[in-house]
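Recall that a protein's primary structure is simply its ordered list of amino acids. Everything else, from secondary elements to tertiary packing, is in principle encoded there. The following example makes that idea concrete.
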Amino acid sequence: MKNQSYNMTIHLRNVLLHFFLFQLKFTTSFTIHPLSNLQSRQNSISHDKQSFSFSTKLYSLKPAALQILDSGKALARSGELLIEYTSKSNYNLYGGGLSAAGASIRTAGDCIAQAGASMRFKTASEIVIDEFREAGTCLLEGSKNHLVKGVDDADVDKNIQLKDQIGFLIEFMEGSGNMLEETGEKIMKRDTVTEIGSSLVNCSDYLEKLALGIQLVGSCKDDDKDDYEKENEESRNIVKESCTRMLYASEKMKEAGNNLQGIEPPKKKGKAWLKA
């Protein structure tokens, strides 16, 4: 009986000793490196926050949304009018390269308008990127394929003036397409809104020159046709309206770029506010 009680006492003493040593080891390890443990934990938290902020880094393109929407709608209408011009012109341009370029402009305008509608939402950045780049692709295709074909068509018809004027459009249509591609690329790469706005302003400059070139296309005269003035009056009005709509699209795109760059529009002086 005594042996059994003695064994139980020894066992209990060993259990308490192990428990005490375990507690001592745990306390020592915590007190020896409290700063290093705290610092490593803070570093881990900081890294998690950085990863989170990078993966969800979004900025608002909303200040340019309405202007881009208006620009896209105006550009699409300009393309439609250019197609209509080819159908009314006495040069028989419908179905050729110039009318196909008008279709490319119309499609690009639709894409830009969709981008403008999506720019109001921070979570729609992927749609905005796709629409801008698709618009750029349409204009590049129109310049490198359709306008080149339009030059060939005019050459076949031996209309040198029309050939030169259509060829004049290629550079500016290509430039506007490149700027739209660049805009989508900058949004994708998370560049600053100032840099994005700069690309939009550059695109507006190309569109302005493209619009003036389109108006010159409508002023081409075929000396071999005696009834030029009578037959082309309607078509010239159409191409003039196409130019006007594209100039408006250029103006709105420049406003959008300036808004992203933080450039305020010039204030109206005197009684100009009465006309607003």
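The mean pLDDT is 80. Residues 3 and 65 are 92 Å apart (CA to CA).
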